[in-house]
Write a structure and sequence with these properties.
Low-confidence stretches: none
Distance between the termini: 51 Å
Strand content: under 5%
Number of strands: 3
Order of helices and strands: HHHHHHEEE
Strand order of the largest sheet: 1-2-3
Structural class: mainly alpha
Number of helices: 6
Largest sheet: 3 strands, antiparallel
Radius of gyration: 17 Å
Number of domains: 1
Length: about 180
C-alpha cells in the first residue's frame, strides 16, 4: 500500500478515534484520564481530544507503515508535529465561524475533518523527508510537555472563551463557576 493510501486511511481512523476519545473521561472519570481526554465541552478540551486521537492512532499507523514496508525513520517527529499542529490548524479554521455563528455540530465535524486531512498531508511529507534521528527523542519530550500543559490547564484553566464550557457554564474540570 502506498503512503498516500495509508495517510488516507489514517485520516478516517483519527476522525473515528476523535468520537471515541470525546467520551472516555465521561465513561471513566479519573485524574489520569482528565489529562488525556476532554472533561467538558470547551473548545480547549476538544483540542485534547484531537491531540490524543492522533497520538493513539499513531500506534496503528506505525504498524500499518511497517507492514507495508514504508519508511518510519521520522515517525516520532511526524507524530509530534501532526498532533501539535492540529491544534492551531483547528483553532484557525474554527474560531472565526464559532464567534460569528456560534456552536454548530455540522461545522465542528467539517472543520475537524479538514484539520485531520491537513495534518495527514503534513504527515505524508514528514515521512517522505530525509531522516532526522535526533528529533525523535525531542518529539517524545515534546509530547510529554504538551500533556503536562493539558493537565495544568484542565485544573487551572484560563478564564476566557477558549476554556469556557457553555453547556455547564464553567471552566476546566467543572470546579470553577462563572
Amino acid at each position: 500500500m502506498a503512503l498516500k493510501w495509508i495517510k488516507l486511511v489514517s485520516t478516517f481512523g483519527i476522525f473515528f478515534l476523535c468520537f471515541l476519545t470525546h467520551f472516555i473521561y465521561e465513561w471513566f472519570p479519573n485524574t489520569l484520564f482528565s489529562i488525556f481526554f476532554p472533561v467538558n465541552e470547551s473548545i480547549w478540551e476538544h483540542m485534547k481530544m484531537l491531540f490524543t486521537a492522533v497520538i493513539l492512532y499513531s500506534i496503528i499507523d506505525y504498524l500499518i507503515l511497517r507492514s507495508f514496508k514504508q519508511k518510519t525513520d521520522n515517525f516520532l517527529i511526524n507524530v509530534f508535529i501532526t498532533a501539535t499542529t492540529s491544534i492551531p490548524i483547528f483553532l484557525i479554521l474554527y474560531l472565526p465561524f464559532y464567534f460569528l455563528i456560534g456552536e454548530n455540530m455540522a461545522l465542528n465535524l467539517i472543520v475537524l475533518f479538514i484539520t485531520i486531512v491537513i495534518s495527514q498531508i503534513i504527515s505524508y511529507y514528514i515521512l517522505k523527508a530525509k531522516t532526522y534521528p535526533n528529533l525523535n527523542l525531542i518529539s517524545i519530550i515534546g509530547i510529554i510537555l504538551v500533556y503536562i500543559i493539558f493537565g495544568i490547564l484542565t485544573y487551572y484553566p484560563l478564564t476566557n472563551d477558549l476554556f469556557f464550557d457553555p453547556s455547564n457554564e464553567k471552566y476546566g474540570i467543572n470546579t470553577y463557576d462563572v
